Amino acid sequence: MLNCPNCSSKKIIKNGIDTLKNAAKIQKYKFKDCGRRFNQRTGTPMYRLRHSPKTVALAMKIRSEGNGLRATGRILGKSHATIIGWEKHLEKTAEK
After folding, report:
1. Separation CA 66–CA 32 (nearest Å)
2. CA angle at residue 92 from 91 to 96, to 5 degrees?
3. Measured distance CA(67)–CA(59) in Å, rounded
4. Among candidate residues 37, 49, 29, the one with its CA nearest the CA of residue 92
5. Rounded mean pLDDT of 19-24?
6. Which end of the chain has less neighbouring CB within 10 Å, N or C?
7. Average pLDDT over residues 3-25
8. Rounded CA gap, 84 and 24, in Å?
9. Helix, strand, or coil (residue 52)
10. What predicted TM-score, i.e. pTM, was given to this entire model?
């Protein structure tokens, strides 16, 4: 069970669904006592990324095999700047 960092409550209710660009659905939740909201990705490396976890993981796998940023972007149909953003985000979450 998850405790709220604000009020230490354990009362959680479902609070809608977000739909990503790839039509994937992410469940949103809310703490009943204080109203703080979160989703199923909160606290994970995928938090605040708008693409599917499979796409991001595939990009990191392609990069780890020695492909460049632009080549990875061409393979996945994404901008090289997007790939850079994913790498920076994942690096930050790994440091925590």
Report:
1. 47
2. 115
3. 10
4. 49
5. 78
6. N
7. 81
8. 23
9. coil
10. 0.69
